[in-house]
Amino acid sequence: MSSTSVEPLVKLAELPDRGRALVATCPIKPGEILLSDAPLILYPATASAAATVCSRCFRSLSSPSSAPIRCPSHCSASPAASSFCSARCLASHSPNLCLALSRLPASLPSELLSPALFLLGAYDLAVASPSDFLRLLSVHGTAAADVDAPALHSLVSSVLPSPPSGFSLELTATLLAKDKANAFGLMEPFDGGDRRVRAYGIYPNASFFNHDCLPNACRFDYVDQGGERNSDIVVRAIHDIPEGREVCLSYFPVNWGYAERQMRLLEDYGFRCECDRCVVEKDWSDDDDDDDEREEEVEEGMEEDEGDEAMDNMEEADDGDGKFPHAYFFVRYVCDRENCGGTLAPLPPSPEGMLSNLMECNVCGWLKTEDNTDQDGGEGSSGLMLD
């Protein structure tokens, strides 16, 4: 990655009180793809998840079109890796990592398994691609107090075939901090209930997106699609973004309440959010019914507005009464399907620059037109393929 540029539409910059951030290099249209990023490391969220997906790219192995390919050597005894979706994935997996995985205790507690899998992947990366390992070390991360680094270091040292140069407890703790602050979840398809994480990945360019509780971009993953880049994540603009504006994601579902958002940000990322939305909501009561009434009251007034004019009204709506200036975001950009709450972004513009009127949900994968007509997403609940 260039020191100043990630993609043509966004660039890396230092912002006061924000640190490293991605900002728009030009006016960005709704739905434009800002980033398509490949992971440095992928690892399963749970041992049970690992048993049903490709151990390399994490595509589901349940497809009837092809039988899983078993690793012929070390993986048969591993709780975390054994099968692959294609000969390509089998050929590209690491023999050293495979051996280390086979040595992990089958009864390893879940709270140790996930970070151990990350560490094994990270130390394997140090040997296989030192330049990518340096990219991993370059992402932000502060010490994670809730992670037992000494225990994990001891575990990893006992299963690594040959520890890489520089292997130490200090390096292990540093790596765990990078994982804590930067891991993106690749999700299981939405089934109407709680959506589960299938795998975690460290995406070096996407890690520069800062958080906002009213994001102007959102990310999509299509892990079960065909092709060789199914584990990439794609970031698209939710609405118009002017040149020079910071581009932000939400690190969790945007429909979370104030207290839940602040707790997650403090525990996982080490900061409290003071975005415009949080400044308004911090003075609210914890009564959810009152919050719903606030949304309904403002939504009634917002429904008559359209497009960018409504977005401008949303941004200017807080005249000091502090009621619910961001209601329009929830009307237009939050999926209202039952138990979903995902974020909606338009499909990419056509090659000729024509904007799409189809909004895609990044959780349930369904499409709806701007007049709220549901459309079938083609790939079912796992979303559409993006070439």
Automatic annotation (TrEMBL):
<dbReference type="InterPro" id="IPR046341">
    <property type="entry name" value="SET_dom_sf"/>
</dbReference>
<dbReference type="InterPro" id="IPR001214">
    <property type="entry name" value="SET_dom"/>
</dbReference>
<dbReference type="InterPro" id="IPR044238">
    <property type="entry name" value="ASHR2-like"/>
</dbReference>
<feature type="compositionally biased region" description="Acidic residues">
    <location>
        <begin position="284"/>
        <end position="319"/>
    </location>
</feature>
<dbReference type="Pfam" id="PF00856">
    <property type="entry name" value="SET"/>
</dbReference>
<feature type="region of interest" description="Disordered">
    <location>
        <begin position="284"/>
        <end position="320"/>
    </location>
</feature>
<protein>
    <recommendedName>
        <fullName>SET domain-containing protein</fullName>
    </recommendedName>
</protein>
<feature type="domain" description="SET">
    <location>
        <begin position="8"/>
        <end position="252"/>
    </location>
</feature>
